TrEMBL record:
Coiled-coil stretches: none
Record key words, sorted: Initiation factor, Protein biosynthesis
Residue ranges annotated for the Asteroid domain, each copy included: 74-257
Stretch list, region Disordered: 366-408
Bias type Basic and acidic residues, positions: 384-397
Keyword Protein biosynthesis: yes
Recorded superkingdom: Eukaryota
Similarity comment: Belongs to the asteroid family.
Organism (species): Colletotrichum higginsianum (strain IMI 349063) (Crucifer anthracnose fungus)
GO MF, any single term: translation initiation factor activity
Full protein name: DNA replication initiation factor cdc45
Leader sequence segment: none
């Protein structure tokens, strides 16, 4: 039985990690380009399906089989997980958004209070945890015991490992991590031998150890502006900035109005049984999600101004806060199929026609003619059958990671 527990999330990355952040953004962008180039005729519908056929297995013991380019995780995934945890009575009180990187706060907690850290970050084995230990998510599995099914996995104690490897007592696993980082093709025996020799560059080693030092603070009290808030729930990364950059590049390819109207008309060309979804429809969904996320950030800014009792509040900010409070949680943002359903609903209720009138546009700008729609659907179905095989029934497992958030 756990006496105490906490789930730590990054509050923000320090300035020293700006290069790391840029590398991650470039990596995601490159992955998306590779995935897009692998399916030039449209996005495979099964990759963006929102209908939950079955939940992915928790703590699987085998690696997933990949027969196509790996799509990057959704940009809002972590924030959606935080949202869902905060909505549950079981976990809301243990969620911690910390003013820095979460791994240092996990290590500090275990250093002071003991316990085990569940993580996927191997860097936590370098921290000084005293008698604490680390368990990796990839090693967890559900095993049957006399007391029933239990979640089990190996524990790694950095202090115990350092003792068994006979590492210098004043350096411990940090020395091992340092020597490992200096090797382009590390071999365990060679790294261990280097650990037991003299340091060639003591200053470089001290700089390496800085991120693994014990924290001077574990709360928001030293953070300007936010110091008076007990546990802020702000999104760590303003990922809508990245989305806006990507969307801007897309919009520059043609007139922005034509691009938007074209995306809406493309929605009505998607057949229900189509194996491919036009990329314009995927882009439109991304813009809808980016808009909702931007409004979410605006809501957080207004809430923050209210919490700190900002002088001279913006006129109408109270009413705007009330309106923004009705925004859906991240897990409920419309998927591609949700966007298609939304547009169909707007069309059936004549809302799109009214929007066209309000914008002084002909209805054809938003609504394709029945004849062109029928031809387009037949063409899409024929093209899809030629370029993309239907998914086999035995592989009907939802690839939407947000599906797991629907259960506790």
């Amino acid at each position: 039985m756990l006496l105490s527990a906490a789930i730590y999330f990054d509050g923000f990355l320090p300035a020293s990690k700006s290069e790391v952040r840029l590398e991650r953004i470039l990596k995601v962008s490159s992955s998306l380009k590779v995935y897009r180039s692998g399916f030039p005729n449209g996005c495979p519908a099964r990759q963006i399906a929102s209908t939950r056929i079955s939940l992915p297995p928790l703590f699987p013991t085998d690696a997933p089989i990949r027969d196509q380019p790996l799509i990057p995780p959704p940009p809002f995934l972590v924030a959606a997980v935080v949202d869902k945890l905060c909505q549950t009575s079981k976990y809301a009180t243990v969620v911690r958004l910390v003013p820095g990187e979460a791994d240092a706060y996990c290590a500090e907690d275990v250093f002071r209070n003991g316990g085990t850290i569940l993580t996927s970050d191997s860097d936590l084995t370098i921290h000084d945890l005293k008698l604490g230990a680390v368990t990796f998510f990839r090693d967890l599995h559900i095993a049957s015991t006399e007391e029933g099914d239990q979640l089990m996995g190996p524990k790694f104690s950095p202090s115990d490992i350092a003792r068994r490897l006979q590492l210098p007592q004043d350096q411990g696993m940090r020395r091992f991590g340092y020597e490992l980082s200096k090797s382009s093709r590390p071999k365990f025996a060679q790294v261990l031998e280097n650990c037991k020799g003299d340091l060639l560059d003591p200053d470089e080693f001290r700089r390496f150890c800085i991120p693994y030092e014990t924290l001077e603070t574990t709360d928001w009290s030293d953070v300007p502006v936010l110091g008076g808030i007990d546990n802020p729930t702000l999104d760590a990364r303003l990922s809508e900035v990245v989305l806006q950059c990507l969307i801007l590049a897309y919009a520059l390819e043609e007139d922005k109005q034509d691009a938007c109207l074209g995306s809406i008309k493309q929605v009505f060309s998607v057949a229900k049984d189509s194996n491919l979804v036009p990329w314009d429809v995927v882009h439109l969904t991304a813009q809808v999600q980016a808009t909702l996320y931007s409004l979410r950030i605006l809501a957080q800014v207004l809430d923050l101004m209210y919490e700190i009792k900002a002088e001279k509040p913006v006129q109408g900010s109270k009413q705007l806060r009330e309106l923004l409070a009705t925004l859906p949680p991240l897990a409920d943002y419309p998927s591609v199929s949700g966007t298609i359903a939304l547009m169909a609903s707007l069309k059936d209720s004549d809302v799109l026609a009214k929007v066209a009138t309000a914008l002084d546009l002909p209805e054809e700008a938003l609504l394709p003619s029945k004849e062109s729609k029928s031809k387009s659907q037949k063409k899409k179905r024929k093209k899809a059958s030629e370029t993309e095989p239907r998914a086999r029934p035995e592989k009907k497992v939802s690839s939407n990671p947000f599906d797991i958030l629907e259960t506790e």
